[in-house]
């Protein structure tokens, strides 16, 4: 249950969080495709900075919801699963944009990162760690 006197902030934070998810994943996907096409722009400081700003705001909005709803990731296992998947998503994303050596590996990491973040969204929407496989 949201903390009562600031419960008004819940819909605002949720909308902000979801909009930032769309912005963050959209920018990541475009940068990933740009890297695959050997464009230089995805790794230019302007786009890297924009990505850091959006991702930080996304985390802040998520953490604020977490605090507002007084969730415990051990008991609300969907949140625990989402936080673990976030680490997997970050690792796959780093491989797709920077670390993978061949174009084929970068493409596979990009697809895996996008599948991971889509599953995270399904976990959040279902409020269940199995996401789209929830009973
Ligand atoms: C790329 C990463 C993330 C994705 C794709 C994502 C996705 C979503 C989506 C789609 C919702 C909306 C659910 C709905 O409308 O019913 C949501 C809600 C939420 N997210 Fe995230 N999220 C991400 C990161 C995070 C992080 C890092 C945290 C915590 C620090 C977090 C905490 C929450 C909380 C607490 C809610 C509200 C749940 C509720 O209303 O019961 N999210 N997330």
Task: Walk me through this protein's architecture.
The chain has about 140 residues and is mainly α. It has one domain. It has 4 helices and no strands. It starts with 8 loop residues before the first helix and ends in a 9-residue tail after the last helix. The mean pLDDT is about 95. The structure holds protoporphyrin IX containing FE. The site of protoporphyrin IX containing FE has 19 residues, from helix 1, helix 2, helix 3 and helix 4.
Number of distinct beta strands: 0
Question: Average pLDDT value?
Answer: 96
The end-to-end distance, rounded to whole angstroms, is 24 Å
Number of helical stretches of at least 4 residues: 4
Class derived from helix and strand content: mainly alpha
Into which percentage range does the β-strand content fall?
under 5%
- Secondary-structure element series: HHHH
Q: What is the helical fraction, as a range of percent? A: over 70%
Ligands and ions found: protoporphyrin IX containing FE
User: How would you describe the shape?
Assistant: globular
Please give the radius of gyration in angstroms: 16 Å
For the biggest sheet, the summary is: none
Taking pLDDT < 50 over at least 5 consecutive residues as the criterion, the unreliable ranges are none
């Amino acid at each position: 249950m949201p903390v009562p006197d600031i419960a008004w902030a819940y819909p605002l934070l949720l909308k902000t969080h979801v909009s930032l998810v769309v912005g963050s994943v959209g920018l990541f996907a475009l940068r990933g495709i740009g890297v695959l096409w050997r464009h230089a722009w995805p790794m230019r400081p302007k786009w890297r900075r924009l990505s850091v700003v959006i991702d930080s705001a996304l985390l802040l909005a998520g953490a604020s919801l977490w605090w507002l709803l007084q969730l415990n990731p051990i008991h609300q296992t969907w949140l625990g699963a989402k936080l673990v998947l976030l680490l997997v998503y970050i690792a796959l994303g780093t491989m797709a944009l920077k670390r993978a050596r061949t174009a084929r590996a970068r493409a596979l990491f990009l697809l895996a990162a996008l599948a991971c973040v889509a599953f995270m969204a399904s976990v959040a929407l279902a409020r269940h760690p199995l996401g789209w496989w929830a009973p």
